[in-house]
Design a protein that fits this description.
It is a single chain. With about 325 residues, this protein is of the alpha/beta class. The chain has a single domain, classed as Alpha-Beta Barrel (TIM Barrel). It is about 35% helix and about 15% strand. It has twelve helices and 13 strands. Strands 1, 2, 7, 8, 9, 10, 11, 12 and 13 form a nine-stranded parallel beta sheet that branches.
Length: about 325
């Protein structure tokens, strides 16, 4: 589900970051919306969920990360022009440096129509997700009916390893049972702990993204296929695009792992629609044929998918 728009304005943060070989991402080089939709379309993605973000720069160990400043108005504009193919996520600075977080959340949801909120509390203001200073933000999201997407990997999202531990997301899930919590990058490297926590709380949705190709991929494959502790109903298919070429990512997701047919519709798009609270949206109900019996849907050999990130066409995946 997780990806990022690669237009010139939205993609500049990723085009300059360490570890991104832009020559492998033609859409990032071209820098247009048209190139973005062409590239994800060729990978079989139907719907993109763009988690672009707004966070002040930070130094983490040997790396220095610049300000992350993607316009929420731009996200809304692209979503309006491509609704169904593109879901915009509001990037919120919880530290209130770029804007007043509570006011911006309300503006993004009520005025701009964005469908989720993205937070990096380990980066700004620099705290654990269960810090009580974050609770008014979560309550605002509950009141507005939108989920929260967190950057949970310890590698780039926060200074302290502990910030990404699932025990802190567990506390938020307990205190806000009506808040859907999407764990981008799957709390890597604490993926086994996340499986246990998500197994307790149905409002926690793990999205390992490209980290599924690092340590633990076989564990995710096993718990999803065996429907262990409900993982087949919460796991989200996603990417870290444009860090990883999207077509290559999709191909590897299916070649490296053997997903059971019985779980595909859930991990590729149904769980994402549930996490984003879009199950009753008429556009997505029609796109993903939710009103038809499963055996009568035209979803292709792999199913459709919401690539945390974007859905796929009928011959492809779904939402990335």
């Amino acid at each position: 589900m997780r990806c990022r728009l690669t237009s010139k304005e939205a993609g500049k943060y990723f085009a300059t970051r360490l570890g991104v070989n832009i020559n492998r991402i033609p859409a990032l080089v071209e820098g247009t919306n048209e190139a973005f939709f062409k590239e994800i379309g060729e990978a079989g993605i139907t719907t993109a969920v763009s988690v672009s973000g707004n966070s002040p720069g930070i130094k983490i160990g040997r790396r220095v990360y610049p300000d992350r400043t993607t316009s929420n108005d731009l996200m809304a504009e692209v979503q309006k022009e491509h609704y169904g193919k593109f879901i915009g996520v509001a990037g919120i600075d919880a530290g209130n440096k770029f804007h007043n977080a509570l006011s911006e959340i309300r503006r993004c949801v009520e005025e701009l129509g964005l469908k989720a909120v993205y937070l990096e509390p380990g980066r700004s203001p620099g705290c654990f997700v269960n810090d009580r200073k974050m609770y008014p933000i979560y309550q605002r999201c509950v009141d507005l009916g939108v989920p929260v997407i967190f950057q949970t990997s310890v590698i780039a999202g926060h200074k302290r390893l502990e910030y990404g531990h699932p025990r802190y997301y567990e506390e938020v899930a307990e205190d806000f049972p009506d808040l859907n919590i999407i764990c981008g990058h799957g709390c890597y490297p604490y993926f086994t702990e996340l499986i246990m926590v998500a197994g307790k709380y149905p409002n926690i949705f793990p999205s390992p993204d490209e980290r599924i190709f690092d340590l633990g991929g076989e564990i995710w494959e096993r718990v999803v296929n065996e429907e262990y502790m409900g993982m087949a109903d919460q796991f989200l298919f996603g990417s870290a695009y444009p860090f990883y070429p999207i077509k290559e990512y999709v191909e590897e997701f299916f070649s490296k792992f053997s997903w059971k047919k019985e779980v595909l519709d859930r991990i590729l798009y149904k769980n994402a629609l549930k996490a984003l609270r879009l199950e009753n949206d008429p556009v997505f109900r029609k796109m993903y044929e939710l009103d038809k019996p499963a055996e009568h849907t035209d979803v292709g050999a792999r199913g459709k998918s919401l690539l945390w990130h974007q859905p796929v066409d009928k011959d492809g995946l779904g939402v990335v």
